[in-house]
Amino acid sequence: MNEPIIECRDLIKTFSSGAEVLHILDHADFSLEKGKICTILGPSGSGKSTFLAILGSLERFDSGSVRVDGYELQTLQEKSLSVFRRKVVGFVFQFHFLLGDFSALENVALPGYMAGLPRADAWKRATQLLDLVGLRNRAHHYPSQLSGGERQRVAIARALINEPPIVLADEPTGNLDAASSEELRSLLQRLPEAAKTTLVLVTHDSELATIGDTSFLLKGGISNASDKGS
Ligand SMILES: Nc1ncnc2c1ncn2[C@@H]1O[C@H](COP(=O)(O)OP(=O)(O)OP(=O)(O)O)[C@@H](O)[C@H]1O
Ligand SMILES: [Mg+2]
Q1: Does 18 contact ligand 1 (Cβ within 6 A)?
Q2: Is residue 212 part of a domain?
Q3: CB distance 22 to ligand 1 below 6 Å
Q4: Per-residue confidence (pLDDT) for residue 230, from 0 to 100
């Protein structure tokens, strides 16, 4: 077995509001090998998005350890975390979050410039990525001139611009019809090989869930009254 690129040990995550404590992750262990696809499954409210946000260092956790591509997230300060977010992870969400005033090509290239890539290189890489997602002929279209499925493919190309070893996708087909979902499924399935990355995919879509090499089932969201207060 290869060395895991993601490894969580004894992970605890709770949310508190008033006297309620919501146990999202309760001593959870998780690991994923480089180049694989893992699907994160579980009912609404079970903590799938929260878990993905923890892996991408957008959300803190209570205790345990999370190692992602050699970064021990529990020990990092904010400055190192922002380097981690820029270099190690690419995010794709249910909503595309493309900038309406920029073309598809500019949307893909922008996080490249922001990470310090020379303009010509960012442009070239963005063109290659649009090719990879099958949208070379839409490079100069604005988001309003693209279909929902095309916008999501641009969002995937954008997530790849800084060559992240890990892509975190949260219900990327959530807003799409069956035909666009099917296209996105085949793109996501070949992503690890085509873009030399590892994919963690949250999905409710049973068809999309089939592309996982492994899966992680969340049952969290259990609410207990806390000891304090009540
Ligand atoms: N910042 C927060 N403070 C308090 N509770 C929160 C916070 N963020 C999320 N929660 C709660 O934690 C639980 C898990 O939320 P999360 O968004 O991770 O679920 P999910 O599995 O992604 O659900 P869905 O499938 O509906 O997207 C939910 O009950 C939610 O209300
Ligand atoms: Mg969610």
Answers
A1: no
A2: yes
A3: yes
A4: 31
